[in-house]
Specification:
Elements: E1 5-9, E2 19-23, H1 34-38, H2 40-43, E3 59-61, E4 66-67, E5 72-73, E6 86-92, E7 99-100, E8 114-121, E9 124-135, E10 138-146, E11 153-156, E12 159-162, E13 168-171, H3 174-181, H4 193-197, H5 206-211, E14 215-216, H6 234-246, H7 282-285, H8 312-317, H9 336-348, H10 353-360
Parallel strand pairs: 7-14
Antiparallel strand pairs: 1-2, 3-4, 5-6, 6-8, 8-9, 9-10, 10-11, 12-13
Helix pairs in contact: 6-9
Length: 433
């Protein structure tokens, strides 16, 4: 394929500068011949990351979409909510190398690791994301937009694309991606102990990683389980909050966007042996009966045991707008079924301020939450005054996968936009400030 190109230095901010050959906008269309890009002569001089997915190593035959045999497909136990998009995921580890699992919450991947995530929405492939480790503490990443006929791709720096069903899909910018991926020291979010160890993970579950000697040292548990807290409903709620809020922003990693808020929603795999959740668990200790500390929701409980309607977390995951959770542009539609699961769990918790404090332990005080910034998400977050309750207590976010309107703190679970099959609805225009 003949195509003018330019060299762009520092393809992704914060992930190590690299030079790549980038196709100029408008030079890739439905008639593009992907086969030429996939040919060795075309890919031999490709940069890192390459300008097209065809040269990134995911496919051995791009025309037939034949995935390379070195790519290992995997599906996490709880997928991140992405507005109903279908997703495929692959990881490629360098031969003979292992993942450093010394810290079970912060796996370190060997240099040469590639991770791909492909999104299909509205009836066609729309984007494929690549993270590639090129040195110690040095990752490059790129997002490739597919053309309408799915015959070619080019690097995207954030754009809205049309889908086959007449809708649109918003591709995040590199900065959007960094906002979330900085929540992990070694950047990779979904390929982690908890989401590969809980029931339902497939392809490369934790048990297979252990059996094949790919984790060093191997964890004590090859399969994980969230025990019953007495409600019978905590496992799906805590897993969803872990994936959609904790892995990226609300965790103890100082690089995470919402570190300063003091709310910790990431699960530690060492807890998950099936025993009853303890009051020392971060997602309980820092939420149950713990008041928000800033903005218009200051003083309101992050989680009010027995009262989901008074829980700021529920308010924010139930709406779409500047103070939504996950933040814009990560999601344009409320994850209605999973929000209902979180509401049901909170409603079943022993009610009352005293019960909430007891359940959370003696440490569950307002002192656990210090002033912080931003929100939670998979591909980004923002920089608000504080992202305390899975979104932001007192500011607006500039986030990661999609735009929408603000909704006020009293919004009910139905106040936000519904999932795509239910039709989108504006969340309103009342800010949480």
């Amino acid at each position: 394929m003949n195509r003018r190109a330019i060299a762009i230095l520092g393809i992704v901010a914060g992930c190590g500068g690299r030079t790549a050959e980038i196709a100029l906008p408008g030079e890739l269309d439905s008639s593009s011949d992907a086969g030429d890009d996939a040919a060795p002569s075309a890919c031999g001089d490709a940069g890192v990351p390459p300008s097209t997915l065809e040269c990134a190593g995911l496919y051995t035959d791009f025309a037939t979409k034949t995935v390379a045999p070195t790519m290992q497909a995997y599906t996490p136990s709880v997928p991140l909510w992405s507005d109903g998009a279908e997703k495929q995921r692959w990881i490629e580890l360098p031969p003979g190398k292992t993942i450093d699992a010394s810290d079970p919450n912060e796996w370190v991947f060997p240099v040469g690791t590639k991770v791909f995530k492909q999104f299909s929405y509205g009836g066609r492939r729309v984007e494929t994301r690549l993270f590639q480790k090129v040195g110690d503490n040095d990752w490059v990443h790129a997002t490739y937009a597919w053309n309408a006929s799915e015959t070619a791709t080019q690097i995207s720096y954030g754009e809205t694309v049309a889908t086959a069903d007449g809708g649109t899909w918003l591709i995040p910018s590199p900065g959007d991606c960094d906002s979330c991926h900085h929540g992990r020291s070694d950047r990779i979010l979904g390929f982690e102990a908890v989401n590969l160890g809980l029931p339902g993970a497939s392809g490369m579950p934790l048990s297979r990683l252990v059996a094949e000697g790919l984790l060093d040292p191997p964890p004590a548990l090859g399969a994980l389980s969230i025990g019953d807290d007495g409600t019978g409903l905590d496992a799906p709620a805590l897993a969803w909050l872990h994936v959609n809020c904790g892995v990226t922003c609300h965790n103890a990693n100082e690089g995470s966007t919402a570190y300063g808020a003091g709310m910790r929603l990431r699960l530690d795999p060492r807890w998950l042996d099936g025993s009853t959740p303890g009051s020392s668990w971060d997602p309980l200790r820092t939420t149950l009966g713990v008041p928000c500390t800033s903005g218009s929701v200051a003083g309101q409980p992050r989680i009010a045991p027995g009262d989901p309607g008074d829980s700021v977390i529920v308010q924010l995951i139930s709406q779409r707008g500047g103070l939504q959770m996950p933040p814009p542009p990560l999601s344009r539609f409320v994850d209605t079924p999973d929000v209902a699961a979180v509401r049901a769990w909170i409603a079943k918790l022993p009610g009352g301020a005293d019960a909430g404090s007891d359940a959370a332990g003696n440490d569950a005080t307002a002192g656990d939450a210090t002033a912080g910034d931003a929100t939670a998400g998979d591909a980004t977050a923002g920089d608000a005054a504080e992202s305390d309750a899975a979104g932001s207590e007192g500011g607006e976010d500039a986030a990661a996968d999609s735009p929408s309107d603000d909704a006020g703190p009293d919004a009910s679970a139905e106040a936000g936009a519904e999932a795509p099959d239910g039709g989108a609805a504006d969340a309103g225009d009342a800010s949480l400030d």
